[in-house]
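User: Predict the structure for this protein chain, please.
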Amino acid sequence: MGTWTKKVMFVGLPRYFEQLLAACFRKEAWEVSRMASGEENAPQGIQTYDCAVDSEEAKTVFAVQNLDLLVYRLERDPACATSRLDALLRLAIGAQVRRIFLLSNDEVFAPGTQPVETDAPAPQTEMGRLLARLESIGLTYRAQGAPVSILRFPELYAPGQTSDDGFIGRLFGAPLMRRPLPHYPNAEAVSCGLLDARDAVFALYQAAARDFSEAHLHIAAPHGTTMAELYQICSDFFPCMDEQGEPREPNGRAVMRSAVIEEQLGWRSRRPLAPGLRETYEAMEASRDAYVSDIRAFSRRAWLGRILLQIIPYAENLAGALVTAGISYLQGGSSVNSMTAFDFAFIYIGCMGLLYGKQQALIAALFSLILLIHNLLGAGGDLVAMLYNPREFLHFVSYFFAAVLTGYFADRASYQQLSDSRIKRRLQYRYSFLEKIFKENLAVKDRLYRQIVNSDDSIGRLYRIVSRLDSVETENLYTQTAAVTADILSVKDVVVYIVGEGGYYLRQKVRLGSHTHELPRSVRVEDNPYLVQMLDEKKIFVNRDLIKGLPDLAAPISYDGRVIAVLQIYNLDFEQWSLYEQNLLSITARLVSSSLGRAYEWDKETAGRKYLDGTRILRTEEFEKVIEEFRERRRMQPNYPVTLLAIDVQGRSYSELDHQIANSIRGEDFIGVTPKGVSLLLPDVAGKTLDMVRERLMKVGIATGESQAL
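Assistant: Here is the predicted structure, written as structure tokens:
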């Protein structure tokens, strides 16, 4: 059965943290998007909206997106932080975003303190006071009913960090850029909290997955780290420890503590400090080296490109001058053809003007003028006399006129092309934005269409599944429970256990799959803490620690306020370890609980018609229904033995027989009347187990006849 995909949007997050967070949410089948304005290289795999939070485009995005979670890092720019936060919260509330996480940090507290979530902010720096003001805006919206929570982080580090990303980024960037490290006079007394961003990402996801809704949450480091300890760790991989710089925060930071995160989210940091810092520095060093290499290669290519762009017009101009000179030589020393009176220099000037504009055209005119004067002087002319000869003077002027005229057309076309390219970029931006919105609308429409029409992920499939549970026969419902679970979750190994009287034992009722025959037929509740917790809290169990022998997933089936059965799944594929599968199992368990409730009520109402008066012995027609149901179960699971054992009544009444046999058979066994007498139906019994049943009945004076395997 299809479910709605949850959506999350990131705004203002550092790139490395955003990438880690996106990977975590995508793994759990969330749809991830981000909003960022003016970025040239958007990250791959994340839907990016190129607009500011206070723009008209942002309103359109929030109107189209049906967000479950908005993650916004409070801005550090005092000029616009307040207005942008206010605009974003208004948009989120108007679009009915289900949860809003505002990310702050430990700068809102005084250095040297160890605050928890309930402590009031006490900022000591300008940045801390700005963040405290922004937090107060978020809390104001929360007081008005907005689903706002403030998550505070310590100083984070992780591979992918840059020198612009916080204190660790600046510290690690200093030796890479040959700058001195900050010097702390009393390094033992200055401390801060340091946390691997990969741990922080999982904590944030846990807060979203468990629907954290309190006002504050500290995702805190396990302990404080002094500058002396930090420098001692860094000395193992820094090229040098040149401590001559002035620290930005000479008193360090607060070391936050959390009073709720482990209890409510089940989270604690797992990654050790020193290896994580080394890994972060090595990644920054490799990125820096690659960046420098790329810059050098790009600079060389750009230099060559500029040289070529500058040289080619002059080279072609010189080549044109040489061609014109060659033509003049072939024509007897003049560029003017004696037969047609056409001057080939005009072709040369016109080509340069149309190709490269006025500058190259004027140079071509100058070359042509030099060639013309040289030819005239060679023919016995006088340079001064040429200036006073109208014919020659007009010839000179015509060269420059042709250069200016052809160059004008080329320059005008170039300016027009530049203007058109600017307009084109603006139109492309608007078009791409509208195209993204259109494609998202189209995707939603297609998904809804497939959900309605496609029988494998639609209302039709839901109807078929529910109809299989539309029965009042208890045994049939248990059989269909296993089959429906295997169908919905696409798993093979499913077991249904029923809870015995008093809730001390679980007895296997139905099993499917080739690996389930090895599982115990009876399980003691006290020996399995997960069962104790499930029977008490009625919640799904997830084997996150992969403990051998326990199911991967288990769900309680409840009736009348108590757990009557447990649905267990084994051997999940790696891709099925997700919240999506847990939700499917939870829905299936609720459907089964509802159907079993109706069946139990029906059993109570029809007990007089199903059983012989005052006994647990089924009437013939009811016993035949049970036998047929177990035949169906055998067809589903061939290695599930079911035995029909005849009983010698020996003149006893049905009431006497029921009283005598009551304590010698299991709760899941059936006794009923057949055309040949009375028989026992024994699920999951054969061979030695059947012999044990015969011996137990013989001890209470009941003889048995032939057995028959269904």
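The first helix runs from residue 15 to 27.
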